[in-house]
Structures are given as C-alpha cells and as structure tokens.
C-alpha cells in the first residue's frame, strides 16, 4: 500500500510545484500604468517597430487617477525589452508613442498625462 501512495504523493507534489513555477514565470514580466489624465484609458498598445501594435487586456479600462499593473503574456517572451507604448482614451484620442525598456525599473509606473 505504501508503494502506491508514495508515487501518487510525489506526482501530486511535482504537479503543484510545476504549477507554482509556471504561475511565477507568467507574472515575472510586468509594469505599472498611471493614468494622470481626466479621461479613461480604454486600450494599451505596444510595438517593437511602431508598425504592428499588440493590445494589452486592460479589462474595462484604467480610470483617471488610477494605477494598474499590467502583465506580459508568455507569447511575448521572445521579444526585446525596448518597446513603444501608447494609450487610447475613451474620447478616441491616442497618446504619443513613447519608447520604454520593459526589463528595467518594473515598479516605476509609465505615466500618461494630459
């Protein structure tokens, strides 16, 4: 009986450990966005080239005065650190694209101002 229980326990522990490692890797790359404008941010986009833009899932948006944490999707793991970012606002306007190194100073927010 012990021989059957031990391998199942070991497999369960290994599965839980792997899940924890995967969860950490998925949230390893992140950044913060601070909306200092009077208009809600409804879309965040990033690009390595300023030609092809990828969208972040920001849910219902980032309200005026709010700070939110954004996490990179695993599909971006092969992309470079230097990326352009822009915001689309509820009034349809876009911010000017700004270039950031997303591998440094992860806790310093990217600020969008009026």
From TrEMBL:
Keywords: Signal. Residues 1-25 form the signal peptide. Residues 57-78 are annotated as: Disordered. It comes from the Bacteria. This is Secreted protein. It comes from Chitinimonas viridis.
């Amino acid at each position: 009986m012990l021989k059957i229980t031990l391998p199942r326990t070991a497999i369960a522990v290994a599965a839980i450990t792997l899940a924890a490692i995967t969860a950490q890797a998925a949230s390893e790359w992140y950044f913060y966005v601070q909306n200092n404008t009077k208009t809600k941010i409804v879309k965040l986009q990033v690009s390595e080239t300023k030609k092809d833009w990828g969208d972040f899932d920001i849910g219902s948006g980032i309200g005026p005065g709010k700070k939110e944490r954004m996490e990179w999707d695993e599909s971006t793991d092969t992309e470079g650190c230097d990326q352009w970012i822009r915001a689309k606002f509820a009034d349809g306007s876009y911010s000017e694209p700004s270039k950031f190194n997303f591998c440094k100073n992860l806790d310093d927010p990217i600020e969008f101002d009026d």
